[in-house]
Design goal:
Structural class: mainly alpha
Largest sheet: 2 strands, antiparallel
CATH topology of the largest domain: MetI-like fold
Strand content: under 5%
Mean pLDDT: 84
CATH class of the largest domain: Mainly Alpha
Oligomer: single chain
CATH superfamily of the largest domain: MetI-like
Shape: globular
Low-confidence stretches: 9-20
Length: 301
């Protein structure tokens, strides 16, 4: 008795049609995300890019889209070059400070267990429960002359006279360091906690000291967390606006402050857009380099 080929052909046809159906479903599910990205990310960037090639009419205050590069040529002025250098140096300094302080904290957290680890993690995340602006203004009271920080330094005989830190690059650096420190600790903690303790025990059994085991095993395996933390801190710190405005007192301007001034005070939208696009290009380049470094680290580990 021969088997009827019709059901077999029908099943085969169903199997051939099903991938198209599943692909269409996936595409339909991706449409909201694609539309959201197009509306709130691609479209604003396109408008900003269009404005950066325009020119402001100083008489009518209208924007003439003449596709000129004059806005980008103005970036060679010493004011903007110094602002970029200051922003990069403060960002690098704050990122390095967060790494130096955050790595031991994250390492300690990864070695804890149970309720103690949970409580310590909550302690790291508590600053996020308070307004960013409120936390920044708190440092004004702490760093001002005659404030708590000055009193503590005098009591420890580490400083004499007025502190004179507020409204200076040092105050901005301290504010960035404090505000972004949890963003460095958390990815480091995740990376360190994933390391198998048996690897360090094996290194010790093979005669490696604690420092050598850390340098040869723990540190290389935690590099993805180090790179991720540096990205999370360095990128937003470069364009920081609130902290320099409050702790810098208008004296220590960063790149974000210069961009905001062009839009809200000067009203030169094309030049402000050129500044913003230039900053975005620099940050994108940094992200590409960091991502390539992270990929190489992941391949090695």
């Amino acid at each position: 008795m021969t088997e009827d080929p019709a059901p077999r052909a029908s099943a085969a046809g169903s199997r051939r049609r099903s991938p198209w159906g599943r692909g269409s479903s996936r595409q339909l599910l991706a449409l909201p995300t694609f539309g959201w990205t197009l509306l709130f990310f691609v479209a604003p960037l396109s408008i900003l890019l269009l404005y950066s090639f325009g020119q402001m009419n100083l008489i009518t205050f209208d924007v003439n889209f003449g596709w000129t590069l004059d806005n980008y040529r103005q970036l060679n002025q010493s004011l903007y070059v110094h602002t970029v250098v200051r922003s990069v140096l403060l960002s690098l300094g704050a990122t390095l400070g967060c790494l130096v302080i955050g790595y031991p904290v994250a390492y300690t957290l990864s070695k804890q267990q149970g309720r103690i680890q949970t409580l310590l993690l909550i302690g790291v995340m508590i600053p996020f429960w308070t307004s960013f602006v409120v936390r920044t203004y708190a440092w004004v009271n702490l760093l001002q002359n005659g404030g708590p920080v000055e009193n503590v330094l005098h009591a420890l005989h580490l400083s004499h006279g007025s502190l004179n830190v507020l409204y200076s690059p040092t105050a901005v650096w301290i504010g960035i360091l404090y505000s972004y420190l949890p963003l460095m600790i958390l990815p480091l903690f995740v990376s360190l906690e994933r390391i198998d303790p048996g690897l360090t025990h094996a290194a010790s059994d093979l005669g490696a000291s604690g420092l050598r085991a850390f340098r040869r095993v723990t540190l290389p395996l935690s590099m993805p967390g180090v790179i991720a933390g540096c990205i999370l801190v360095g990128v937003p710190a470069t364009g920081e606006y609130v902290i320099p405005s409050i702790l810098g007192g208008g004296k220590t301007l960063m790149y974000g402050n210069v961009i905001a001034d062009q839009f809200f005070q000067v009203g030169d939208y094309p030049f402000g857009a050129a500044l913003a696009m230039t900053m975005m290009a620099v940050v994108t380049l940094f992200l590409v380099v960091a991502r390539s470094g992270l990929s190489r680290v992941e391949d090695v580990t």
